[in-house]
Structure formats: structure tokens, C-alpha cells
Design a protein that fits this description.
This is Alternative ribosome rescue aminoacyl-tRNA hydrolase ArfB. This protein is α+β, with helices and mostly antiparallel strands. The protein contains four helices and five strands. The mean pLDDT is about 80.
Length: about 140
């Protein structure tokens, strides 16, 4: 897998040179192995400075409110689900590809609409009926 580009779509791929991987010791349970072997992967990708991303996609990705994005526009993905370094590396790359793929779809802009006359009437009728129910609960009855 080393030396291969990260393929997002058939038209879009990220060169290996733009990805920065760091191998660290994983946290959590795992016994002696976890204390000796650096199996966790920290994958960094600079979205803001990447020449391989189209400008519109870059803007959508940077506009997301994701806790993995730094203020400088770098996404940091930590992968430590698996016991092997290779599998964690693959997992981090898959998660980066999924994150970038979410920015590929352009959100539809909302078209402002007004409520219809019938829906306004139904709403007001409901309010009136509810008010009648509440008015009926008050203690102004003459129980002869």
C-alpha cells in the first residue's frame, strides 16, 4: 500500500506526498503489546493547501464543523481500532476518503415557500379548538 495514491472517485485522487502519517502507541487496554508497539496511526491531510482538490470541494470541506479539522484547515484522523499498524493505516485512509466523499455532493438550496390558505385555516381551527378545551376547564361553571 505504501506509495499509492488515495482514490476518492475515478476522477479524484490524492497523491501520497500530500498525506502525512505518524505511528504512535495506541491508548486503552491491550496488555504488553500495546505498550511496546506503535500500531496507532495519526493521518494528517492539509485541505486548505492541497492542489489536488477542486476549489468548490475545498470550500465545502473547510466549511464543515468537524472536530477533526484544525484552524489551519488540516484534518487529523486517529486510527487505533485494530491490532496491526497496516490495518489501522488502511482504516485511517478509508475514513479520510469517506470524509472527502461527503463534500462531493452539492447540497440543494432551499426554496422558500409560503403556507397555503388551507393550512393556515387548519392551524387556526386547531388553535381555536384547543382554546375551547382549555376554557372549558376553568371554574366558571354554574352547576345547578
Amino acid at each position: 500500500m505504501p506509495g499509492t495514491d488515495l482514490k476518492i472517485t475515478p476522477q479524484l485522487s490524492i497523491p501520497e506526498s500530500e498525506l502525512v502519517e505518524r505511528f504512535v502507541r495506541a491508548s486503552g487496554a491491550g496488555g504488553q503489546n500495546i505498550n511496546k508497539v506503535s500500531t496507532a496511526v495519526e493521518l494528517r491531510f492539509d485541505i486548505a493547501q492541497s492542489p489536488s482538490l477542486p476549489e468548490a470541494l475545498r470550500a465545502r470541506l473547510l466549511g464543515k464543523r468537524d472536530r477533526r479539522l484544525t484552524d489551519e484547515g488540516v484534518i487529523v484522523i486517529d486510527a487505533q481500532r485494530f491490532r496491526t499498524q497496516d490495518r489501522n493505516r488502511q482504516d485511517a485512509r478509508e475514513r479520510l476518503a469517506a470524509f472527502i466523499a461527503t463534500g462531493l455532493s452539492v447540497p440543494k438550496s432551499r426554496i422558500a415557500t409560503k403556507p397555503t390558505r388551507a393550512s393556515k385555516t387548519r392551524r387556526l381551527e386547531g388553535k381555536r379548538a384547543r382554546g375551547d378545551v382549555k376554557r372549558g376547564r376553568s371554574g366558571r361553571h354554574s352547576w345547578d
